[in-house]
Structures are given as C-alpha cells and as structure tokens.
Amino acid sequence: MSDPSPTPASAAPRTSPRRAARWPWFLLVFLAALAAAGWYGWHWWQAREADARAQVASADHRLDALAQRLDAIRDDQRAQVQRLQQAEATNRVLRDELLGIGQRAALLEESVTRLADPNRDGVQALRLEEVEMLLVFGQQRLEIAGDLTGAQRSYAMADAVLTAVKDPAYVNLRQALIQERAAIDALGADPRAAALARIDAFARGLSEAPPVAAGPAPAADAPWWKRAFANVFDIQPRDRVVAELPSDRAAALAALQLELTLARAAAERRDEAGFGDALARARGWLERLWPESAALDARRAGLDEIAALPLSLSVPTLGSTLQQLRQLRAAADVLPSERP
What we know:
Elements: H1 17-20, H2 23-116, H3 122-145, H4 148-163, H5 171-185, H6 191-208, H7 224-228, H8 246-268, H9 272-289, H10 294-307, H11 320-338
Transmembrane segments: 23-45
Coiled coil: 56-87
Protein name: Uroporphyrinogen-III C-methyltransferase
C-alpha cells in the first residue's frame, strides 16, 4: 500500500484572486459613507447653530419689548401719582375753603343772633365799653406812670358812667368799683414822691451843715509824745479811716452827693434794689466824712429810714373791677349764642 505524498510544511495557503480584488471597493464605500455622514453632521450642526441664534435674537427682541412696556408702565404710574397729588392738593384747598365758609357762616349767625336779641341795649353796650376803657386807663396810669391823681379821676369817671347803667345785673360790679375806688383814694401821697422829698431834705442838710475836719484833742493824761505830735500825725483804725485832708474830704463829699443822685434816679424808676444799694454806698461815705459821733449816728439813722421807704403803690384789689366787668360781658355774649 502506497502512502500519500506528504504536504510540505513550508507551503503557504493561496489567496483567491476574487477576494483580493473586492476589498478596495469596501474601503471606497466606507470612505464615501464617512464623507456623507460628515457632510450631514456639518449641515445639522449649522442648522442647529442658526436655530440657536434665531432663538437668542427672538429672546432679545422680546426682552426689549418687555423693557419698553415696563418703561411705559412706569411713565403711566408717575402720571397717575402726579394726578393723585394734584387731586389731593385740590381737595385740601376745597376742604379749607369749606371750613372757612363754615366759620364765616357761624360768625354771621352769631352776629345776627346778637343783633336780634331783644335784651341787648346799644346804649348800655357803649357805656360798658366806656367803663372798661376808663378802668384800663386808670390801672395803667397807676401801675406804669405812678399818676395817683390821674388814676383817681379815671375811676371817678368810670363810677359816674356805671351809675347810668340801670341793669340790675351790674349792681355787684358797681359795688366792687366803689371798694376799689376807696382803696385807691386811701393811698394818700405817692411813696416815690415822699422818698424823693426825704432824699432832697437829707442833701440840703449836708449842704447846710457840711462836715468839718476836726481831729480829737489829746487827753490831758495822754503820753507826752502823743501830746507833742498830735498835730503831726493821727492813728486811726485800719477798717475805718476818716478823711482829714481837704482834698480827700471834698472827694468823699462829692461821692456822697453822687450816690444820693443815683438813689433819686432809682426812686424815679421805682427800682427798689438800686435804691437800697445807692443808699448803702452813701452810708459808707458818711463814715468816711464823720468820726464816730452823735451827728454820724443821726445821719445813719436818716439814711436807714429813707432806705426803708416803699417806692411803689400797693393796691391789692387793683384790677378786680375790670376783671369782673370782662367776665360779665363775656357771659352776656355767650348766652345769646346758646339759645335754641
């Protein structure tokens, strides 16, 4: 039996010529498909980008339109606020005018009511006006000018006018006027005039009896050196020195007269504090002119009496009649308006 001939190991398989000619076509088809896919993808991306840009442009357009609408709404809102403010101002003016008209109407109604009141007497009203004016004049002349005579005349004229009023409602008022008039008549002289007269009398006393420089004579039992040098020097207390030289005494006397003049000016304006201070300074100048003696004590006492004098008129009931008259007139004016 014959063995088949062995196949050599180095022999390679043979490729079919048909299969070898087919693979380039597959490569070309793949490349064409890849190119087609790339072209389609590029066109799809371009279309998507265009669509996105169109959406962005549309959104921007809508945002611009919305901003314009918001601006228009804000303008309309401002216009509405201005109209509301103008309307509020107009309403406020109208309300004030209505209130003013109401007040004027109330005043007119009150005036008509007063004129229509049968109990109101025109002559009596004029007399009460005159009484009030005279009382005001009298009080001012007494408090401001210190004219006691003028005040008494004003109160006397007011009493005469009030006597002509026959209304029984004013009987108590006339009694109050009589009491106040009696208190004013009891004042007597003006205390300011009395104080000025006392100052003038004190100044005349100084001019009639001026201070004389006279040192005390040394006693007989004084030491020899004190009797020998008595005309050369004099020892005085430190807290109180009496002027001895003529020039010093003339200056002290002039200062005393000046303080008295200041006291007169303070009395004229009824300044009690300045009046007392000026007399206190004058008292100090007295001690500069006179040594301790009975004459100095008398002049001190005179200045103290002048300083204790009052300068203002004091009437506790001053103005009570005027106040009562005004209350009665106010009550008479209120009563007609309260009637139905």
